[in-house]
């Protein structure tokens, strides 16, 4: 049984509400999606539950459908835009006068997944915060300028991909250096936020609900030396970053010789391979930066699943890792991390 557009849902427990909303965003029906969230609000469902249990949960499902190659990137982007429209409809119905303080909410430089952090911003507004939502990919210097202009009590910083960790580190250090504590969130900071602490964040939250509770209870924390964790990365990390283009182009040339099916690739497949090799270097660099091979092994396992869904056999990724390893024979830490990635593939 599914919810009909002529029978508005009364509760999130109504059969088929989630699937109906997913179908609507997948079909590009923003009017239907907004009608569902509006009906739920009309029937007394708290705005926070609509945001977390319907919009956020559906967005996670959208990402899974893309990874499984069931949805195209275009369809995923369109669905995200409709969920942003639905979130706006919820926000318009749930205005709360600020009573707590002021907080800046932003994605780190290079991070474009803005919907999760926008949901956080709306949750904080419901809890009485005055929120400055800066959106996706905020360059560090511009973020600090904003802090000087507004003087917030906190910064909530989102990082969805571990490749953004060096930029997240720079932003965290810059915020704390001007006296503004940082609460970090997003899977880019690792399991249980392990890399958020490594980068000097004052706190970490696994999701928007936990972030709201933490900010309400024990904030602000005392700020110790903001530069205590300001210097990470070493010669190997620097080499990877500086020679990223050469590493990718050399691996691509050798992959064409080592993996004959590449000779039949069309332009789209060729471009995707270049992008994948770039991701290998970027995640390897991030693993070196925080000194944790799990950054890389998690990426390898996820990439293998994504490629398999697109009929690319795991051996192609294994060969690509080997070709990257061959170029880094003088860098033992990088080799150890790549070897851990290959072992993860074999498992």
Written account of the structure:
The protein has 347 residues and is α/β, with parallel strands linked by helices. It has three domains: 17-92, Methionine synthase domain (Methyltransferase, Methionine Synthase (B12-binding Domains), Chain A, domain 1); 102-217, Cobalamin-binding domain (Rossmann fold), CATH 3.40.50.280; 235-346, Globin-like (Orthogonal Bundle). It is 59% helix and 8% strand. The chain has helices at residues 17-26, 30-42, 47-67, 73-92, 115-126, 140-150, 165-177, 194-198, 208-217, 235-242, 244-258, 267-290, 294-309, 314-326, 332-346; strands at residues 102-108, 130-138, 154-158, 182-185, 203-205. A five-stranded parallel β-sheet has the order 2-1-3-4-5, sandwiched between helices. α7 (165-177) links the parallel β3 and β4 (182-185). α3 (47-67) runs antiparallel to α4 (73-92), α11 (244-258) crosses α12 (267-290) and α11 crosses α14 (314-326). Mean pLDDT is 92; it is low at 1-5.
